[in-house]
Amino acid sequence: MAPQGLGGEIEVNIAPGIIDRYNRHETNVLAEWTDANSHLVAKNVADALSKHYPGWFWGCTANVHEGCIVVLNFQLSGEVGHVIKLQGLFSWDNLRDLIVREAGELLERYGMPRGRFDFERYNALPKDFRGLPVGEVARKN
After folding, report:
1. Looking at residue 138, what is its pLDDT?
2. What values do phi and psi take at 78, rounded to 5?
3. Angle at 35 between CA 31 and CA 38, to 5 degrees
4. What is the C-alpha separation between 79 and 137, in angstroms, rounded?
5. How many domains, in total, are found in the chain?
6. In a domain, 29, yes or no
7. Of 74, 76, 62, 69, which is closest to residue 98 (Cα–Cα)?
8. DSSP string of 49-89?
9. Which residues, in sequence order, are CB contacts of 46 under 8 Å at separation 6+?
10. Is the distance from CB of 76 to CB of 135 less than 8 angstroms?
11. Among 26, 40, 57, 93, which one has the highest count of C-beta atoms within 10 angstroms of its own C-beta?
12. Average pLDDT per block of 10 residues along the chain, 141 residues long
């Protein structure tokens, strides 16, 4: 079953022409529903990551209108993550598989295994001056 917002229960174009009280013309309510849809997508992505990688603190932001999802792991770094483009993904299963694969790659870049959070292994990671693990990530230019 597809989660809400991905072709499921939310209809993006529920009210295609509502009269705006101030401008007296029809307005498009797509932006409001896109925001609601983005929240549902982000929630569903976070739920999928929590089920697949229990114990990790994942952060997800989705913007369906722009076509991207950002996945972060706050135990590793709140600054480094993956940007996933939604173009070409046709189902929730494709999206979920891609996100789980990218999240696993993020864990491996920091020297952590894919799977459940391991406190002893996390404590053994080299840390920077802020106390965050140092991983093999691309440098900012």
Report:
1. 54
2. -85, 0
3. 135
4. 11
5. 1
6. no
7. 69
8. HHHHSTT--EEEEEETTTTEEEEEETTTEEEEEEEEE-TT-
9. 58, 59, 60
10. yes
11. 40
12. 42 38 40 68 90 91 86 85 82 89 92 92 88 70 43
Is residue 57 a contact partner of residue 119, using CB atoms and an 8 Å limit?
Answer: no
User: Is residue 33 included in any domain, yes or no?
Assistant: no
Residue 90 structural domain: 38-123
pLDDT value of residue 26 = 41
- Predicted TM-score of the model (pTM): 0.69
The encoded tokens of residue 21 equal 């009280």
Nearest to 31 by CA among 12, 17, 50: 12
Question: Which H or E element spans position 130?
Answer: none
CB 57 within 8 A of CB 73: yes
Which pLDDT does position 131 carry in this prediction? 82
Question: What length is written for the chain?
Answer: 141
Contact 64, 37 (CB under 8 A): yes
> Would 19 be classed as within a structural domain?
no
What tokens appear for 79 in the block?
């600054």
User: Which residues have C-beta within 8 Å of that of residue 57, sequence separation ≥ 6?
Assistant: 73, 74, 75
Nearest to 116 by CA among 54, 29, 52, 65: 54
